[in-house]
Every structure is written in structure tokens, then in C-alpha cells.
Design brief:
The complex is a heterotrimer of chains A (about 525), B (about 200) and C (about 525). By secondary structure, chain A is mainly alpha-helical. Chain A contains 21 helices and two strands. A two-stranded antiparallel ribbon of chain A has the order 1-2. Chain B has about 200 residues and is mostly helical. Chain B contains six helices and no strands. In chain B, helix 2 runs antiparallel to helix 3. Chain B starts with a helix and ends in a 39-residue tail after the last helix. Classes of the chains: A mainly alpha (about 525), B mainly alpha (about 200), C mainly alpha (about 525). Chains B and C meet through helix 4 and helix 6 of B and helix 1, helix 2, helix 4, helix 5 and helix 6 of C.
Chain lengths: ~525, ~200, ~525
């Protein structure tokens, strides 16, 4: 098959960045050529990704597909090695989708457009790279590649406190990524074979103690990105200051890098350590859900509110990862994709609202629903998706995580009971703050000052189109989740099987929750099956 | 102990005392002209030590170069800069003196321990004595040819450099009203108006 | 002594590159004498041509069968060829920077070039010097030329101050170095050649080589002064600030490279007996340099001082390769030097261009440069980000190789310090980038508001532009297409008998290190950070 041999992933990774290099030479008098150029590049790349998915990808194969491997720097054992399995494929597609929509969403950007589109396209490449690479050093390379574009996108086009937010972002991320390199070096030089190839690293036989250290290092790095409490503090700042398109990328894709990397590395390569860390992850997941939901409740700034809701949703990803069941893990992946879509749509709408009201403070809004019925409708729909209304993808994902965790045989019943109850509290908090937010923006008496001073025009067709594009998969996955889960099911099943066989067979002495004896209640007759 | 050895011992003691004494004088005297002359004394005594070691050529070179050139240059420098500045005593200067003395004594102790504690490999060759000039010439044109030739480049460049520093530049005569001329200066503005020689305030050291 | 026989033994062809430099030097000097001021038109190009010819000659000497020349005074092995090549390249790159700079300051160009070529010559001889006398004469040639260059702007009190400081501290360190060499001479029983000295040490076989250690300490003091390692760095910021900027560029690359060449040759050849001790000393120097250089750089307001401290820190990274002492270690050091050449000289070219146009080098004056001069902004950003180790620029690969080699050899502590400090370094490099790119038009500094029209047709600016673009292209691509450089660095190490012997000797007594036991404390120290 010639089509199968076509270097799909390499081409799709390099296309945006190569196209970006031509941006300085494109004549752009009225500022319109450039955005069309970027949009077309993004679209072509997305089409290529979809083509790769249809022509070269097989759902039933749990291994790596579309594999390409070329030696890059033999002295460092650095290989250009890309490939996609069930875990990366949905996220790669999501990246193409959200990035293209983000370019479409950046129509109103007029400040330094050349730099803006250059950075957006560079980011496009970097994000695809993170999900596609199969070599640890290359992964680190791609991970760091993200740094400067995001930094500049935040610091030039952001809100008032953008410099602070951008600096905080870069220090957190650079500090975190240091752990990736350390762990990668330690794992690569472990044993006799020096290799950075992910599958080779996964096959190495590490001691449990070593695994624990590596797990902790990776966890710190990815907890910054995901984010996991208490390493989340950069996120509200960064998200609070970014403009809508950047925001879509941050919430839609960047956060998923953390979740993806935890599944790929912590679960895939260090299964023994996962058995020890999983309960801690659950606890952190719960803290994420409840703490972020409560904090979101108290925010008066619209963007920060939604940013905290993102953190809260990421808690489900963590719990799904720690559930030791296929259902839970599957739910975690679904939650990542689903939140990518929902988060992007919400942040886009916040941006659209801000374009009209020019304020993000809830107290200064109110009653704009009459003037902007379309935005009102879209905002409501997306909020419903975010609060996990049945029929939308968020509901399915959270339900899968719930059921997966509740049926997990890795935890004692009491622990599960408490955890599920707390998670439920989080789920109840979500509609409260989201609906309050809606009420404060759109309902109630009209804010006279706002009505008089700002031109509150309703959504234009471009905006409706973007939201429609995002809502179709949200509702589609909500009604028929198999559409998405079938892509990655084989991979997550094999991953969970490996995890379970290692966690329950080999480390008898590492009984889960052994270090939390007071939670180890006597087994009740109603055990989870 | 033969007579020759005795004389050598006595002479060594004398010269060593002279070296140390004059060197202390250089450091401790406050009049700079005295210091400069005493420095000449140090150089002379050291050349005496060379003579004792049977190294006549080095001794002569020492006198010619250090006393004849370096020391005279220093004296010229001092005399030409005919500017007497009142010496203001540094506050708590004695702390610095004590610290310097301590460091010097420590270094001396260290080096003497090292010198006494090391088994030096003594060369078995007999000293050439007055034939040294010939031998040095031979070395210059055989195994030390490269450094010898390189030194010529070094000297050429030192000459060029000295001329550059000393010559009058062909700067167009600026009108006297123009106080600040950019000629022969760095294009960058100074950081702030502090007199040269003071650290900038933001420098943390 | 038989002089006819001697001529054939000299093998003088080895120093052909140096001969070419001397010839060029004389041509420029005499040509300037005859032609007067009119010579400014051709002398820089003659200099560059002559130096390039020297590079060609160096290339032809690669892997020469009989590297030893001048009866053992000079060693033309591949290691020295690489170092000599780097020094000549840095001189070539300095010439175009200085044309306009020197012209604008009203000093004469030919003498500047002559002194710089002499410094280059000193550095080249230092890289291959194989006996104590040659080492010292070469070192002094380099140093005295550097003092002269530093004080070249003789009407400027800052330049005078810098020259005097440099001279005094340099002379003191030379004296200490010389004292150390005299101890070596005495300890070895009157030997001059480096290998003979070490052989006599081995033959003497004394248990407590206190004499050797004192000699080592003194020698290291001299070397550390040249490479500006903390705590022998005090001269660096003041000298860098007061010197003409092209001189700083040369000092920070050429002079530093020569210092490293001296360090490798002298320490590896003479001190295998006390190899543990000098490794320990250099570990301390490396840690101090990395920490202090990077931390103090955070507080700088002047660009030249910032680059001064950054160069101290970079020397710290380079020392990791030296301390590690494996084949990969030496190669990584050479590789990093090659890359450092491009990025640092590129950075200095930008700083010179900026100060020529605005007359200042304050970091705050850079704010808003993007609006007025995008090309300069781009170039300076790329060079600084590369110095900070951001992918995909060359500096990332350089640092990666050093850390890779360090981890491979088990120098976990050093690698961790290097990683943490390089995260710190990102902060101050990006501060400058932020100044230039992020600032709004209304935040523009005075220098930028009065920025002259960008024109390249002034005399001397064209070569500056060409060299700038070459340096930036090299910085951007040397990482991605780094294979030739990697091969060059590796070959230069593997083809050098001196280093091979040292590597074998180092590996022989070392047992296989159990990885977990050594990694575990390293990782704990990460966790504590």
C-alpha cells in the first residue's frame, strides 16, 4: 500500500511550521490575506490528519500505527520517531480540529498579525508533535517547543496582567519540564540498553523503588500542565489573561498534553509505581474537583471562573486514570476530548462576549440576553454541556469515570464510597456556579451603562459557525460515545490489562491503600463486582 | 664543610635577608619613591641568589631587565606623575592589614610545608656555569624554537600596542565649546553618571 | 647539534595555519603603513580572507599522520585543530562587527585587526602547545593582546578602567600560573614536555603528592581566570562593560575557547596522578559558575553585563563536559563550544548594531524594538533563546548533549544543578525578548522612539548584516541539522590519542555502577528542590 507508507504524521507536523516560515514574505495590505492563509494551512493540515486517520489507521490494532522512524542524532540516540495509537489518535485529531477553529476564531486580531499567525501555526506543529512522537527525547523537545509561542501569545495579546501571567506560565512549565528530562535520562540509562524509544523504555524491567522516583518526577511535570492541585496556580492567571483563540488552544489542547503524558508514561511505563500512587491521585483528583469548583464559585472574573471550572473537570481525568478499570480510563480519555471541545467553545464565547461588553467582571454585566439572543443561546448550550447534561459528551465521560471508579476492585469499599460522594458534591457544585454565571450575565435587569456605552450586536455567522462546529461533536459523542471510544478502546484495554496484571499479581505486598489503614473498612457484603 | 660551602651559606643568608627586608620595605613604606628604590634592591638581591646558584646568565638578565628597564621605568612613571596627594587613612585599615598578613602567613606556611614535604627530583646533569649562554642559544634554535619565534610576534605586537596607546590621534580639532566628544570613546553611553572606578549600584558584589 | 637533520625534524608544516595568520598580520600592518587611512577599505577583507585561508589549512591537516612538530613543542592533533578552528572562526566573525564600530569611534582599524590577529595567534598556539614554555608564551601573547584590545578606546574612562583591571588581575593570575609551572618543572626534575612531566610523576610514585596538588591549584587558578569561572570571574563584568563590544565578543568566545583548550591539554596530560582532585575542583568551579552566573545575571540592567554573566554561566555548563571526562563528555564540550560560537557572536552582533544605532546598551532601552526593527529583534531573540536552550535552536541540542553525557557518566548532581540553573537562565534571556517584542508602542523607550531609519548602505554595515544573518541561520539550523557538528566533535575526540588514553585510564578502574543506588539520592534531591 502506497498510502500506508506515506509519511502522514511527519507531513502533518511539519506543514504548519513550514507554512509559518513563509508568513513574513506574504504581502498583506489590509490584514486579510494573512488570516486566510493561516486558515487554509490549518484546514489542509486537518484534512490531511483526517485522511491519515481514514486511510492509514486501524481501530482494531492496539499497537502503534502510522509509524515512521528516522535517525536524527545518533550520538544522542535521538530519533525522529512518530506514530499513533488509540491514545494519541483522538488527541491528534482534536488538535487539528481545535487549532483550525482557533485560527478562525482569531479573525478580530489586528495587533501584530504576522507574529500572531506565525506563533499559532508554530504551536499547531508543536502540539501535534507532542501527541505523535514516540521517543522520549523528542517528546521533551516538542514539550519545550511549546514554551515560547505560548509565552509570546500570552504576553502580547493578553489582558492587563498578561506579563505576570506569561512569566508565571513559562517558569512553571520550564521548571516542570526539567523533571521530564531528568526522568528520561534516568530511564534511558537504566540497565544495559541505552535507548530513548518509548516502547523500549516501557519494556525495561525497573525495580519498584526506581519506578516510584520516576513516577513522582513525571507526575510533577505533568501535574503542572494538567493541572493538579497545588501546581495549578499558573492556570487561572494564564487563562484569565489570554485572548479567545489562545484560550481555546490552552484549554482545548494544552491541558490535554498533561493527561496524555500521564497515561502514556506513568501508566504505560511504570505500572508498578502506579499501584502505589493511584490512591494519591484519586485524592488529588477529588481536591481538584471540589476545590476548583468552590473557587470558581467565588470568582467575579468570567475568564477565571471558567478557568477554575477547567481545573475542576480535569479532576475527573485524574480519577479515571487512577481507577484501574478500562471503563474509568476510557472515561478519562473521553473527558479529555470532551473537555477540549467544551472548554474551547466556552472560552470562545467568553471572548465573544468580551468583544461586545469589554468587561469580564460579572458585576458590570447583566441583562444582555435580550440584546444578544444568539450568544445567549449558545452560551447556555455550552454551559449545559460543561455541567454534564445528559446527551452531551461531558455527561458520558463523567458517568464513565464514576462507574469505572465505583466498580474498581482496587480500592476498599469505604474509600470508594467517600470518594464517590465527594465527587458527587463536585458534580452538584458545577451547575450551581455555571448557572449563576449565566444568570448574572444574561438575565436580570439590563445594566444601563453597558447598554448605552457598548455596541451589543448579536453573534455574527462566523461565530455561530465555530460554535456549531464544536457542538456537533459534543452532542454526537454524547448520544453515541462509541463513535469516539472505538478509536481507542483496544489501546486502553491493553493498557489496563497490563496495569492490572502488574498491580495485582506481582506486588502482593503493595496492597493498595496499605498506608491508609483507617480507611480500610471491613468488607461489606455488597462488594463491587 | 669546606670554606666555599661556608661562604655560600653565609652569602645565601645575607642575600635572603636582603630580599625579605627590602621586599617588606616595598610593601610597608608609605613613600612611593622609597618603595620603588627598594624594589630595585629586591631585584639586585635576587640576581645575587642566581649568581650563587651558578646561573650567571640569568643573573645578568635579571639586572639588565628588571633593574635596568622595569625599575627605571617605574621610577620614571612616579617622577613624571608629579602629583602629591594627601594620604587619607582608611577607616579600620588595621583589619585589612591583619587579614592580608594572615593570608600571607598562611600561604607561606602552606608553601613551606609543601617545599619541605616534597621529594624533589634533582636533575643529575652538572650545571654548565658560564657555558649557559651557548646552551640557551642552542635551545632557542632547537627545541624552544617555536616559543622563541612566537615571542617575536608578541614583542612586535607589544610595540604596536605601546605606540597606539601613546600616539596622538588624528582627531579633527573639535571646537572647544563641544565639551563631550565622541571620538575614541565607546559608542555606548555610560550607565549612569558615576565616576569611573566605582561599581554600578545594581552590581550585587 | 646537527642543524640539517634538525630542519627535517621540525615538521613545521603543522603550523601552516598560524603561518598564514602571521603573514596576514604583516600584510595588514605594512599595508596600513603604506596606504594610510585609505587602507580601511580593504584591510578587514584581507583579514577575513587570511583567516579563512587558515581555516582551509586547518581542514587539510585533519587526521595528519605526524601531528607532533617543533621537536615536541606543538601538537597538531585533531583536538587542537578543532579548538584552533573555533578560535579563528570567532576572529573571522569579530571582524565584520568591528568595522563600523571602530570607524564610528574614530580609532584606526588596521591596528585593531593586527592586535586581534595576534590574540588569535596566541589562542591557536595555546590550543596545541605541548610544553610549558610554549604554553606560557602563547598564553601571554593572547593575554597581552587582549589587554590592548580592551583599552583600545583610550579616551573613554570606562575602557581605561577595564583595561587596567584586566591587566592587573590578568598579570596576577599569570604570575600564579607561572609559579605553578615552575613547581611542575621542579617536581619532574627539569622536564618541559607535558607527557614527560606526567611520566616522571608516575615514576616517582609518591603517595602524598602535596607538591603536585599545590602546583595543580596554581595552574587551575590561571586557567579559571581565562575561562572566567567563579570565583575567578570578578574581572568579567567590568571588563565586558568597558571594552569595545567587538572585543567582548572575541573575549567571550575566542579567549574562552583557548582557555578550555589549555585546560583539557594541561590537566589531562600532566595531572593524571591527581585526577580525582582536579575533577573535584572543577566540579566545584562548574557548580559555582552555573549558580552565580545565572543568578547574578537576573539583576543586570546593562546588556553587556548580562552577557558577561551569561558567559560565566555558559562556562559552567562547558565544565560539566570537562569534569565528566568520558568520550561523550569531551565531545559534548566541543560541540557546545561550536554552537556557543554562533549564538554568542550572533548575540553580540545584534548588541553592537543596536548600540551603533542608538548609542546605548541598557536593557530597558530595548523596549519596543520590534516596531522599529523587526529583523534585529528576530536575530537577537533567536540568539538569546538559543543561549537559554529553547528548542529547536542550536543551544538546546548543545545543552542536551552536555546533560546527556553528564548523566551517562553518573554526574547526577552536576546535571541537576545545570538543569535548574538553565531554567533560571530562561528567565533573564526572555526578559530581553519580552522588552523587545511585547512592549506596546506607547511604552517605547526614548532610544527606540528616536530610532534612526534602518539602512544597511553605510560603510561597514553590509558585512555586519551578512555575518549577522549567517550567525542567526547557523544558530537556528545547527541544532536541527546538527549531525555534521556532532560527528566533527566526536571524531576530534576519538582521533586524539591523548584523550583516548585518558578515557581508557578513567574507565579501567571504574566498576559498573549500580544505577538505582546512585540515582535514588539524586532524585530525592530533586524532590527536595
Amino acid at each position: 500500500m502506497e498510502l500506508a507508507q506515506f509519511p502522514w504524521l511527519t507531513v502533518t507536523i511539519f506543514l504548519p511550521i513550514t507554512a509559518a516560515l513563509f508568513i513574513p514574505f506574504i504581502p498583506d495590505k489590509d490584514g486579510k490575506t494573512l488570516r486566510w492563509y493561516a486558515l487554509i494551512v490549518g484546514l489542509i493540515d486537518f484534512v490531511l490528519l483526517v485522511a491519515a486517520f481514514y486511510l492509514g489507521y486501524d481501530f482494531n490494532d492496539s499497537g502503534l500505527q502510522l509509524v515512521e522512524s528516522y535517525t536524527w542524532v545518533p550520538q544522542l540516540d535521538l530519533k525522529w520517531s512518530v506514530g499513533a495509537d488509540g491514545l494519541s489518535m483522538p488527541l491528534i485529531l482534536l488538535t487539528g480540529f481545535i487549532s483550525t477553529l482557533a485560527i478562525l476564531a482569531s479573525w478580530p486580531v489586528t495587533l501584530k498579525p504576522r507574529l500572531f499567525y506565525f506563533l499559532i501555526l508554530a504551536m499547531y506543529s508543536g502540539q501535534l508533535g507532542v501527541f505523535a512522537v514516540q521517543d522520549m527525547l523528542l517528546f521533551f523537545f516538542m514539550w519545550e517547543l511549546e514554551l515560547i509561542p505560548v509565552y509570546l501569545l500570552l504576553s502580547i495579546w493578553g489582558g492587563k496582567k498578561r506579563l505576570y501571567a506569561a512569566t508565571k506560565f513559562i517558569l512553571y512549565t520550564a521548571g516542570g519540564s526539567l523533571f521530564i528530562l531528568v526522568a528520561a535520562l534516568a530511564m534511558a540509562f537504566y540497565g544495559d540498553v541505552v535507548s530513548f524509544d518509548m516502547s523500549t523504555l516501557a519494556a525495561k524491567d525497573y525495580t519498584v523503588k526506581f519506578q516510584l522516583f520516576m513516577y513522582a518526577a513525571f507526575l510533577v511535570a505533568y501535574a503542572v500542565k494538567l493541572p493538579i492541585f497545588p501546581l495549578h496556580t499558573w492556570l487561572p492567571d494564564a487563562h484569565g489573561e489570554a485572548t479567545a483563540p489562545v484560550h481555546m488552544l490552552l484549554a482545548g489542547i494544552l491541558l490535554k498534553m498533561g493527561g496524555y503524558a500521564i497515561i502514556r508514561m506513568n501508566l504505560g511505563m511504570l505500572p508498578d509505581a502506579h499501584a502505589v500512587f493511584a490512591p494519591i491521585l484519586v485524592i488529588f483528583g477529588i481536591i481538584n474537583i471540589i476545590y476548583a469548583a468552590l473557587t470558581s464559585f467565588a470568582q467575579r472574573n468570567l475568564k477565571r471562573k471558567i478557568a477554575y471550572s477547567s481545573i475542576s473537570h480535569m479532576g475527573f481525568v485524574i480519577i479515571g486514570i487512577a481507577s484501574f478499570t478500562n471503563l474509568g480510563l476510557s472515561g478519562a480519555v473521553l473527558q479529555m476530548v470532551s473537555h477540549g471541545l467544551i472548554g474551547a467553545s466556552l472560552f470562545f464565547l467568553v471572548g465573544a462576549t468580551y468583544d461586545r461588553t469589554h468587561t469580564l467582571v460579572l458585576n458590570e454585566m447583566g441583562g444582555v440576553g435580550k440584546k444578544m439572543p444568539k450568544i445567549f443561546a449558545m452560551f447556555t448550550t455550552c454551559s449545559m454541556a460543561s455541567l454534564a447534561l445528559p446527551g452531551m459528551s461531558g455527561f458520558v465521560a463523567e458517568l464513565m469515570v464514576f462507574v469505572g471508579f465505583a466498580t474498581s476492585d482496587a480500592y476498599s469499599f469505604t474509600f470508594k464510597l467517600i470518594a464517590v460522594m465527594l465527587m458527587a458534591v463536585g458534580v452538584i457544585l458545577t451547575p450551581i456556579y455555571l448557572l449563576t454565571m449565566l444568570r448574572e450575565i444574561f438575565y436580570g435587569p439590563e445594566n444601563q451603562e453597558l447598554i448605552e456605552h457598548e455596541a451589543l450586536i448579536d453573534a455574527e455567522p462566523r461565530e455561530v459557525f465555530i460554535i456549531a462546529c464544536l457542538l456537533i461533536p459534543i452532542i454526537g459523542f454524547g448520544l453515541y460515545p462509541k463513535m469516539l471510544t472505538q478509536i481507542y478502546d483496544t489501546t486502553t484495554i491493553s493498557l489496563t490489562d497490563n496495569l492490572r496484571s502488574r498491580a495485582f499479581a506481582s506486588t502482593e505486598e503493595l496492597q493498595p491503600l496499605a498506608f491508609l489503614p483507617h480507611l480500610q473498612a471491613p468488607e461489606l457484603p455488597i462488594t463491587a463486582d | 664543610m669546606t670554606l666555599a660551602e661556608g661562604v655560600q651559606l653565609v652569602l645565601f643568608g645575607l642575600l635572603a635577608a636582603l630580599v625579605i627586608g627590602t621586599a617588606l620595605g616595598v610593601v610597608l613604606l608609605s613613600n612611593i619613591v622609597y618603595s620603588a628604590f627598594l624594589l630595585g634592591g629586591v631585584f639586585l638581591s635576587i640576581s645575587g641568589l642566581y649568581v650563587l646558584l651558578n646561573a650567571g646568565f640569568v643573573a645578568a638578565a635579571q639586572i639588565l631587565i628588571y633593574v635596568g628597564a622595569v625599575n627605571v621605568l617605574i621610577l620614571f612613571g612616579i617622577m613624571l606623575v608629579n602629583k602629591s596627594q594627601p594620604f587619607t587613612p582608611v577607616r579600620r585599615g588595621w583589619i585589612r592589614l591583619i587579614a592580608t598578613g594572615g593570608v600571607c602567613l598562611g600561604l607561606f606556611a602552606l608553601l613551606s610545608t609543601m617545599i619541605l614535604g616534597t621529594s624533589w627530583q634533582l636533575s643529575t646533569e652538572t650545571p654548565v656555569g658560564d657555558g649557559a649562554t651557548v646552551l640557551i642559544g642552542m635551545h632557542f634554535f632547537s627545541d624552544f624554537l617555536l616559543p622563541f619565534e612566537l615571542a617575536s610576534v608578541l614583542l612586535l605586537m607589544a610595540l604596536v600596542g605601546a605606540i597606539i596607546l601613546a600616539r596622538r590621534e588624528f582627531v579633527p580639532d573639535e571646537p572647544p565649546t563641544d565639551a563631550i566628544s565622541d571620538a575614541l570613546k565607546l559608542p555606548e553611553r555610560p550607565r549612569e553618571l558615576v565616576p569611573a572606578g566605582r561599581e554600578g549600584s545594581e552590581s550585587p558584589e | 647539534m646537527d642543524f640539517t637533520n634538525l630542519a627535517s625534524q621540525l615538521n613545521a608544516g603543522i603550523i601552516l595555519p598560524e603561518g598564514i595568520v602571521v603573514a596576514t598580520l604583516l600584510v595588514v600592518l605594512v599595508g596600513d603603513l603604506i596606504a594610510g587611512r585609505a587602507s580601511t577599505r580593504w584591510t578587514p577583507y584581507a583579514t577575513m580572507a587570511g583567516l579563512s585561508l587558515a581555516i582551509v589549512a586547518l581542514i587539510y591537516q585533519w587526521d595528519t599522520a605526524t601531528p607532533l612538530s617543533f621537536l615536541g613543542s606543538f601538537m597538531g592533533d585533531d583536538l587542537s585543530i578543532v579548538f584552533r578552528g573555533i578560535i579563528v572562526l570567532s576572529a573571522i566573525a569579530t571582524v565584520p562587527m568591528s568595522i563600523r564600530y571602530i570607524e564610528q569611534s574614530g580609532t584606526s582599524l588596521a591596528e585593531f585587526l593586527v592586535i586581534m590577529m595576534t590574540a588569535t595567534l596566541g589562542g591557536m598556539f595555546l590550543s596545541g602547545a605541548n610544553d610549558l614554555v610554549t604554553i606560557f608564551v602563547a598564553l601571554e601573547t593572547l593575554s597581552i593582546s587582549s589587554y590592548l584590545l580592551t583599552g583600545y578606546m583610550k579616551r573613554d574612562p570606562r575602557s581605561n578602567e577595564a583595561a587596567l583591571k584586566y591587566l592587573l588581575i590578568g598579570a596576577a593570575s599569570s604570575a600564579i600560573f607561572l609559579y605553578g609551572m615552575s613547581l611542575l618543572y621542579g617536581l619532574s626534575g627539569g622536564k618541559m614536555k607535558l607527557l614527560e612531566i606526567s611520566q616522571s610523576f608516575v615514576a616517582a610514585d609518591s603517595d602524598a603528592p602535596i607538591g603536585i596538588i599545590v602546583a595543580l591549584v596554581f595552574v587551575i587558578a590561571g586557567i579559571a581566570f581565562k575561562i572566567a569561572a567563579v570565583p575567578f570571574h570578578q574581572w568579567t563584568p567590568d571588563v565586558y562593560e568597558g571594552s569595545p563590544t567587538p572585543v567582548v565578543a572575541f573575549l567571550s568566545v575566542g579567549s574562552k575557547t583557548a582557555g578550555f583548550a589549555l585546560a583539557i591539554r594541561l590537566l589531562v596530560a600532566v595531572f593524571p596522578v591527581v585526577s580525582e582532585q582536579w575533577h573535584f575542583v572543577f566540579t566545584a568551579l562548574a557548580i559555582l559558575s552555573m549558580v552565580l552566573g545565572n543568578v547574578v545575571a537576573l539583576a543586570q540592567t546593562s546588556m553587556k553585563r548580562l552577557l558577561a554573566y551569561s558567559s560565566i554561566a555558559q562556562a559552567g555548563f562547558l565544565m560539566i563536559g570537562l569534569v565528566v571526562g568520558t568520550e561523550a563528555g569531551y565531545s559534548s564540550m566541543i560541540f557546545y563550544l561550536l554552537i556557543y560560537l554562533f549564538m554568542n557572536l550572533g548575540g553580540f552582533t545584534c548588541v553592537i548594531l543596536f548600540s551603533l544605532r542608538t548609542g546605548t546598551d541598557q536593557i530597558s532601552e530595548y523596549s519596543g524594538l520590534y516596531q522599529k526593527d523587526p529583523l534585529l529583534t528576530l536575530c537577537l531573540s533567536i540568539c538569546l533563546l538559543s543561549l537559554g536552550g529553547i528548542p529547536p535552536l542550536a543551544g538546546f541540542f548543545g545543552k542536551l548533549y552536555i546533560f546527556w553525557a553528564g548523566w551517562q557518566a553518573g554526574a547526577y548532581g552536576l546535571v541537576l544543578v545545570g538543569l535548574v540553573t538553565s531554567v533560571i537562565s530562561i528567565y533573564y534571556y526572555i526578559r530581553v525578548v519580552k522588552m523587545m517584542v511585547v512592549k506596546e508602542p506607547q511604552e517605547m523607550s526614548d532610544a527606540i522612539s528616536n530610532y534612526p531609519e534602518v539602512r544597511w548602505d553605510l560603510p561597514g554595515l553590509r558585512p555586519l548584516q551578512v555575518s549577522l544573518i549567517l550567525a542567526v541561520v547557523a544558530t537556528s539550523l545547527a541544532g536541527i541539522l546538527s549531525n555534521p557538528l556532532f560527528t566533527l566533535a566526536n571524531n576530534s575526540v576519538s582521533h586524539t590519542p591523548l584523550l583516548q588514553a585518558a578515557i581508557d585510564q578513567q574507565q579501567a578502574p571504574k566498576a559498573v555502577v549500580p544505577p538505582v543506588a546512585t540515582i535514588a539520592p539524586a532524585v530525592t534531591s530533586v524532590a527536595q528542590r
